[in-house]
């Protein structure tokens, strides 16, 4: 009898088994608006400084010559990701303690303040401190992924995470040109010919990024429900009626060993490898394209490289909507496994493009067809991002452990951002200098690594149960 009483539902009308009922589309998308705005604002704040950070370091007198800028700009650019990596666990812990919504809203407000501080910084210490704060608060992105999982169900999960990925990619794409076009506004726009903008030439892009973050905070405050699970499994605060008391916060009794099973650890390792490849490609292509043809590159100028990267980004966004079709037919796991077979093909494309350029075909239709094909195959990696996010959410044993697993996946996501660029560019330089495998050692190594990663993806298994339908 005691056992039966303990197992009885704590809330009236709550059935023992949570039956699957598709949520109202309008309600779900209204709730997701703030999360999508946050997902757009965080990469925007990260990327917007890249076009002008080197010039900012020079003009502020932090570096005396352009040759010295590299070290300082590298520190400024990487500290955001490093601090996000450090702050993931505290952010998810707070989200489990005081709720998801406060963390998202406060994080966006703090992000806006830190970006403005960066734009007005005149010292290296000021730049570093503002980026440290921005990176710390940018870790709230991990909480937004948790909330997206909690407001979605199997009827809309694929569409939500596709748009989620689109929002992140769009933030990246918009941030780069915005940072360049809005710098030194007094020189380019009559509206800003004032002493203030002359004194603070890098403030305008940061102010715009801050406004985006504040709008995101407002949307989250207005539209987001609190999704931290209540005492009864599967019930969120948004699903409680107004006259019901707010139940006590849940305490998951699942042990660390029970959460991080071999299957989940294997999935996290695959996540790390997938993002390591993604970040390596983004870092190495501009360097490869800039390197002289005789040294193994394409010998392109900065403007052409920018066009290439912009075109590839547009392709990546353009094909993302087709993910939902593939996911419905094949399932997230199968899509992930198929897409993980594409990076080896991309790395084959680098020496192929160089070979065409060496034979005087750098402006031929054959070259551009090969480049377009490589970009299409490369862009399909965006499917892996979405499928991986769905697999991470499905891997949680229950709703209370969703935060812990998402925090671990965020570490596996952000850590490659810190180590991939320096690793791949150094390996590229060593390949050219040593001339091992005709200067192609970097491509041979990355091809072999990604073949192993692709094979490993076929060992991943779909969970037999879903935390969304537990008692």
UniProtKB/TrEMBL annotation:
Entry GO terms, CC = membrane
- Where are the membrane-spanning stretches? 33-58, 70-95, 102-121, 197-224, 259-285, 305-323, 335-353, 365-386, 407-430, 442-460
Q: Which GO terms describe its molecular function?
A: transmembrane transporter activity
Ranges for the region named Disordered are 1-23
InterPro entries (alphabetical): MFS, MFS_dom, MFS_trans_sf, Tet-R_TetA/multi-R_MdtG-like
Q: How does it sit in the membrane?
A: Multi-pass membrane protein
Quote the subcellular location field of this record. Membrane
A Pfam family reported for this protein in Swiss-Prot or TrEMBL: MFS_1
This protein's major location comes to membrane
Question: What residue stretches are annotated with the Major facilitator superfamily (MFS) profile domain?
Answer: 31-465
Which UniProt keywords are present, listed alphabetically? Membrane, Transmembrane, Transmembrane helix, Transport
Q: Spell out the SUPFAM superfamilies in the cross-references.
A: MFS general substrate transporter
The entry's protein name is Major facilitator superfamily (MFS) profile domain-containing protein
């Amino acid at each position: 009898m005691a056992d039966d009483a303990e197992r009885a539902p704590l809330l009236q009308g709550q059935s023992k088994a949570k039956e699957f009922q598709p949520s109202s589309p309008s309600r779900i998308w209204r709730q997701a608006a703030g999360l999508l705005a946050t997902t757009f604002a965080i990469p925007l704040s990260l990327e917007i400084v890249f076009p002008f950070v080197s010039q900012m370091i020079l003009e502020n007198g932090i570096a005396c010559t352009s040759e010295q800028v590299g070290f300082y700009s590298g520190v400024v650019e990487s500290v955001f990701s490093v601090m996000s990596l450090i702050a993931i666990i505290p952010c998810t812990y707070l989200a489990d303690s005081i709720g998801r919504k406060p963390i998202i809203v406060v994080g966006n407000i703090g992000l806006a303040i830190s970006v403005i501080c960066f734009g007005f910084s005149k010292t290296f210490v000021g730049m570093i401190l503002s980026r440290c704060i921005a990176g710390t608060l940018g870790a709230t992105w991990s909480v937004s992924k948790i909330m997206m999982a909690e407001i979605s169900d199997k009827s809309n999960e694929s569409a939500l995470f596709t748009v989620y990925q689109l929002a992140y990619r769009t933030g990246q794409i918009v941030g780069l040109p915005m940072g360049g076009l809005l710098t030194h506004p007094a020189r380019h726009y009559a509206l800003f010919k004032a002493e203030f903008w002359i004194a603070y030439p890098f403030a305008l892009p940061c102010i715009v990024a801050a406004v985006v973050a504040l709008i995101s905070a407002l949307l989250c405050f207005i539209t987001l429900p609190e999704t931290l699970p209540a005492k009864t499994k599967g019930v969120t605060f948004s699903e409680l009626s107004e006259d019901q008391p707010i139940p006590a916060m849940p305490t998951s009794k699942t042990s660390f060993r029970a959460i991080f099973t071999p299957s989940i650890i294997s999935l996290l390792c695959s996540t790390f490898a997938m993002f390591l490849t993604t970040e390596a490609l983004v870092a190495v292509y501009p360097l490869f394209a800039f390197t002289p043809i005789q040294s193994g590159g394409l010998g392109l100028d900065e403007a052409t490289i920018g066009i290439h990267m912009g075109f590839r980004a547009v392709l990546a966004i353009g094909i993302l909507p087709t993910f939902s079709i593939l996911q419905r037919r094949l399932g997230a796991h199968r899509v992930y496994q198929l897409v993980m077979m594409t990076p080896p093909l991309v790395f084959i494309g680098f020496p192929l493009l160089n070979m065409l350029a060496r034979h005087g075909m750098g402006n031929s239709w054959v070259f551009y067809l090969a480049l377009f094909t490589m970009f299409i195959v490369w862009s399909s990696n965006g499917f892996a991002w979405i499928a991986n996010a769905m697999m991470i959410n499905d891997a949680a044993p229950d709703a209370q452990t969703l935060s812990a697993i998402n925090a671990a996946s965020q570490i596996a996501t952000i850590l490659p951002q810190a180590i991939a660029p320096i690793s791949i560019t150094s390996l590229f330089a060593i390949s050219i200098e040593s001339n091992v495998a005709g200067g192609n050692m970097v491509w041979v190594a990355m091809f072999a690594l990604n073949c192993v990663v692709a094979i490993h993806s076929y060992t991943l298994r779909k969970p037999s149960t879903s935390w969304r339908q537990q008692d």
